[in-house]
Amino acid sequence: PAAPAYPETDREAVHRVIRERRDIRNGFRSDPVPHEVLLRVLEAAHTAPSVGHSQPWDFLVIKNEATRRRVHELAEAQRDAYAQSLPKGRAKQFKELKIEAILDTPVNIVVTADPTRGGRHTLGRHSQPQMAPYSSALAVENLWLAARAEGLGVGWVSFFDERELVQALDLPEHLEVVAYLCVGYVDEFPGEPELVQHGWSKRRPLAWVVHEESYGRRALPGEDPHDLLSETLERIRPLDAKALGEAWERQKRMTKPAGSLGMLEIISAQLCGLSRQCPPAVPEPAAVAIFAGDHGVHAQGVTPWPQEVTGQMVANFLGGGAVCNAFAAQVGAEVCVVDAGVAGELPATPGLVPRKVRPGTADFTQGPAMSREEALRAIEVGIDTARDLVTAGNKALLTGEMGIANTTSSAAIISVFTEMDPAEVTGRGTGINDETHARKVDVVRHALELHRPDPSDPIGVLAAIGGLEHAALVGYILGGASMRTPVILDGVSAGAAALIARAIAPEALAACIAGHRSSEPGHAAALTKLGLRPLIDLDLRLGEGTGALLALPVVQSAARAMREVATFDAAGVTEKN
Ligand SMILES: Cc1cc2nc3c(=O)[nH]c(=O)nc-3n(C[C@H](O)[C@H](O)[C@H](O)COP(=O)(O)O)c2cc1C
């Protein structure tokens, strides 16, 4: 027979300590930790599994205040540097967060890894040297759980330059610091991570991270496998009628003439219906995701810009030198750059999310731009991006895109869904002369004749004439809608993607706000078809999320007004007869 499991109550105790372990930075008490308690906790740490049984950890127990002050100074400097690096919307939130309790706790414990311990032939470490610090991290988890059972709080501090910390603590040079832990008795253990309580992050559901047999085949044990798109579509729901009703009621009672905030009243009601609460939270922090992709149809001479410019502009976004960066800095948003299908290889750079589905689409005047499978994969890239940005705490998703020749693809998509003639929806993109424009219209017309895309098969439309960034934008919109997060649409490519998203899931539109109207004729046609009114109309035709970024403060103002403007009864203002 199999070895027996623990009895039910013991099992529950194990799961309880796992569930109720918390990282603590607030509410520490100064009570000393008795020797026998500390010993039990260290014993638990020392019982951890380790690579080749090398037991690579050491525990440095620090109570001395002067030492802790030195370490605290290092952490403060790193905190300042980190705060400096944040977008404004995030920095505001970060200011409220405590990230260490070095001086508030009676005991600090440094956990190290010795990469030489166990000798040259440590079993399992030969191929993966990182197994030594991983083993020490397991010791930390054991310590953390045992401490929780003792009623001791633990706070892990990683705001250090690791080598600086080794020096400050006078540790042997060959050791690596794995963890710096602040330990002490606490007033309480919060039910949720402090970062969740502060709206800094959200929990990812287990279902997002379990795959069966092959990556992307999602299923919790006992469930039928499904893909990311169907999982996402299942969660897209209409605006909440109750919150919408409350929003209209509240608008009437706000100290202003009814209707005087025009479109902003509609936006704030939409935010209520979306978040199921009235008033809604101000959608901050926000992030713009810029999906980049190249286009085979570039070969047809539809733009004077060389294809390499897509990759070069990606580098510019990452370097902070583009218009989107300036606007994002102005409105405090994060810029997230995703390679959905740039033709060239892009060097790994901080801030670049490498998700290339294929190096550019094929020329859709000759055959399909991509396979259905590739279109679906690019949609998944967009869903994943939306999930990441929202669980990282963003309360609004802005669309952005970069792809030389992508207005040709946008025009073709818009023509399919609006049934308008290619000549009416094909614009001048980045600026083309009459001759190139005429060729571009012909290219779109030819592609539509070749593929006869069927608007009732939106993924087929994407595969035939779409771009990888369009497909990713579709996923991003659907992902945002599934998490009931507002999606502020940028220009013509976002308009084309929204038409496709709506064809896949009509309710997805409930999450969409048209940030602006670009001077591309196809964009106006798309917005009309979608029934969306743009917030800003300034003849922009740049892309990169610039129009959506400009609209962000308008959307935030709509929410803020609903939250902060007094009601007639509360302010003692007489209403009109
Ligand atoms: C490797 C690691 C490093 C961490 N570094 C810090 C830190 O520097 N400052 C901090 O406040 N919390 C830090 N934490 C705590 C996490 O923020 C915390 O574990 C997470 O928010 C989940 O909350 P919970 O541990 O209460 O479940 C760290 C956690 C880990 C695992």
Shape: globular
Proportion of beta-strand residues: 5-15%
Share of residues in helices: 40-55%
The H-level CATH homologous superfamily of the largest domain, spelled out, is Nicotinate-nucleotide-dimethylbenzimidazole phosphoribosyltransferase (CobT), large domain
Cα separation of the termini? 83 Å
What's the rounded overall pLDDT mean? 97
Using only CA atoms, what is the Rg?
28 Å
**How can the largest sheet be summarized?**
6 strands, parallel
Bound molecules: flavin mononucleotide
Number of DSSP strand runs: 10
CATH third-level topology of the largest domain: Rossmann fold
Strand order of the largest sheet: 7-6-5-8-9-10
The parts where pLDDT drops under 50 for at least 5 residues are: none
Q: Please state the structural category.
A: alpha/beta
The CATH class name of the largest domain reads Alpha Beta
Number of helices: 22
| Overall tally of structural domains | 3
CATH architecture of the largest domain: 3-Layer(aba) Sandwich
How would you describe this structure in keywords?
single chain, 577 residues, alpha/beta, NADH Oxidase, Rossmann fold, 3 domains, six-stranded parallel β-sheet, four-stranded antiparallel β-sheet, 10 strands, 45% helix, globular, binds flavin mononucleotide
SSE blueprint and pairings:
Layout: H1 8-20, H2 35-46, E1 57-62, H3 65-85, H4 88-95, E2 107-113, H5 131-149, E3 152-157, H6 162-168, E4 176-185, H7 194-197, H8 228-234, H9 241-253, H10 263-275, E5 286-293, H11 308-319, H12 323-331, E6 334-341, E7 352-354, H13 372-391, E8 396-402, H14 406-418, H15 422-425, H16 434-451, H17 458-465, H18 468-482, E9 487-489, H19 492-504, E10 512-514, H20 521-530, H21 546-564, H22 568-571
Parallel strand pairs: 5-6, 5-8, 6-7, 8-9, 9-10
Antiparallel strand pairs: 1-2, 2-4, 3-4
Helix pairs in contact: 2-5, 8-18, 9-10, 10-21, 12-21, 13-17, 13-18, 14-16, 14-19, 14-20, 17-19, 18-19, 19-20
Bound molecules: flavin mononucleotide (FMN).
Pathway: Nucleoside biosynthesis; alpha-ribazole biosynthesis; alpha-ribazole from 5,6-dimethylbenzimidazole: step 1/2
Family: Belongs to the CobT family.
Keywords: Cobalamin biosynthesis, Glycosyltransferase, Transferase
